[in-house]
Amino acid sequence: MVLKLIKQVIKVGEATVLYPFTPVEVSPGFRGRPQHDPALCISCAACVQACPSNALTMETDPDRGIQTWGIFYGRCIYCARCEEVCPTGAIQLSHDFELAVMSKADLYERADYRLAACRRCGMLFAPAKEIEYVMALLEQADFSGQILAESRLLLELCPSCKRKMDLHKLVNLYQEADE
Amino acid sequence: MTSLEEKKPKTGQKYVDILHAQFGDAILDESWQAADQVTVTVDLNFLPQVVETLYYQHGGWLSTVAGSDERPLNGHFALYYALSVEGSDQDFATNGEKAFVVVRALIPPHKPEFPSVTPKVPAAIWYEREVRDMFGLRPVDLPDERRLVLPDDWPDGLYPLRKDAMDYRFRPTPTTDKETYDFIDLKGEGIIQVPLGPLHMTSDEPGHFRLYMEGETIVDADYRLFYIHRGMEKLAESRLNYDQVTFLTDRICGICGYAHNVAYCTSIERALEIEVPERAQYIRTILLEVERLHSHLLNLGLACHFVGFDTGFMQFFRVREKAMKMAELLTGSRKTYGMNLIGGVRRDILKDERTKTLKWLAEIREEVKELVSILLDTPNIVQRTQGIGMLEKKVARDYSPVGPTLRGSGFGRDTRKIHPYCAYDRIPWNMISEAGCDVLSRTLVRAQEFFESVAIVERCLEMMPEGPVLVEGFAYKPYRFALGYVEAPRGEDVHWSMLGDNQKLYRWKCRASTYNNWPSLRYMLRGNTFSDVPLIIASIDPCYSCTERVTVVDIRKKKVTLVPYKEMERYCMERKDSPLKQF
Prior knowledge:
In chain A, 36% of the residues lie in helices and 18% in strands.
């Protein structure tokens, strides 16, 4: 038995890897640190809602008219739910796993997004980029010209103003029907 | 419930009929969660008799006991005794009707007590202590009145899992460092008490053991665990929605996390009658077996380590790296796979991954074959493990242990065969059991199961059907409940979940496999020597305990000495120069 063991040990040789003096290769689908691209992000907060550990946050500052997306890597569990639900692919998990930092503040990342005001009542109701995103989707769906312009007017209304405008439309429809 | 009833016949109906015949009016209600899962509500006074009848007369084994604060729903507390009823010895072979029969009883809030089942069914001991700690429901005539889960200085009258008791973040200020736990007091000429803990030898988690020794022979053992109880059940009720709890379940255990994940998901999927796509079931099976590979290799490595064969330990862990790499390739992480959502899995297995996995499996099989033969040829392995840590069949039948611990005592019980889930009833595989009842048998069970696991993964990869891997858009129905069960590397994992009306869990009872193995450990330790203790504890492969140093107390001479962990381990390996020599 000892002979078998010695043969085995010799065959295996040295099993020690050279990391950290050489980089370690991870599998293609490895789930490392989430990376956020603020240009692609539309501040929809889908990731914030999906995150099981509340690593992602969205804070609204009505006075400054800004919504702040934030991530705290100390809470992240690298589950990739944020990547799964993001409509624009703005947050994706990288292969980065060496995340030790010297100061806790380095584990926080933030991005500010301007909120749009309602065209009619001036209330801040949605991130401006979300509205632009919907417009882009409509354009891609071959909306154009008059219909596209009317859609924009609708999108730039807050929900209560939309409701009020709907009422007006209904009343007009009734009146037209009567005529 | 209609579609499920039409498709499958109700197994377990005969046990319900037997209960009706035997107990008449004491059986109040029955409701079916699945074709093989029924919940029978009984009169509280008849609870012990009903459980005993199912346990001893119809081959029942106690899977879990969940308490639940249902005062907001029906004004009572509720107890759910989940039994896996498998048919008595006489009709086991002929009429293999195996079903989960959950015995439910309601307890009025003004009189929070219930007749204890433990005097009739010893397996219920820990569950009833836990229910008392968490809900304040007093089991009348319970033989062991000590706290199980709560620390000594936890305020009286504060029961954490009651709906109105406390926020999940609340921590009462610690009042004292002194442990006031009453370990059993074994008196006798020359009996020495040897405490081990609370930081332990075979694992990295705390637990306080006391060994009662006569010379070098163990007369009895008592232990106390739950030092790192994390309050996950309350956490899941308060903070996570039912779909996010899957990520929490991955983190219940660092070795069998995925098994818990599948047990939880299947409990919710069963409750909501979601049909998981077939491909997803095969993927789940593959990942469950990949997890079993790394877990069994870890245990075999530890078995080597404790008989002093450290080279073998290192080699086993080197090979285990391949299993971890396999997991990383298939799921994106070496552990905490995060692969499940309610309704299926999140990721498919691609062609490249399949090819690589099959290659690694072939390599791992050859290497482990070599290592196991070296291990079994080691001169002292048989001598160190044969006849050691005996788990007698009667003790096993009384205490419902699970997994290789039970299968090493000759019982052919494996959840994958008895209550098949995922793809286990669609691919051929063998259940392993040994009849030796000792540490050697348990180790042999694990070694053979390793090779079965490799074969299962290979077959799954070959036989996987095409199709979707996740089903979305199912209806959420509040207050549905069901059991989910999985054969984790250590044994049966059972989750009982009830959904609330707010997309969160109303109650979640998560029973890890080692929970059922702990109560019988003291019987395994009796009659063995001090140096065998690490080996015996490692043989149940505890997912939950550790002791770091041994305090030796000679009650006659009133001397206390600290024996460091390294010394304890060294003595286990070298068997020379006992640290107890000074006595």
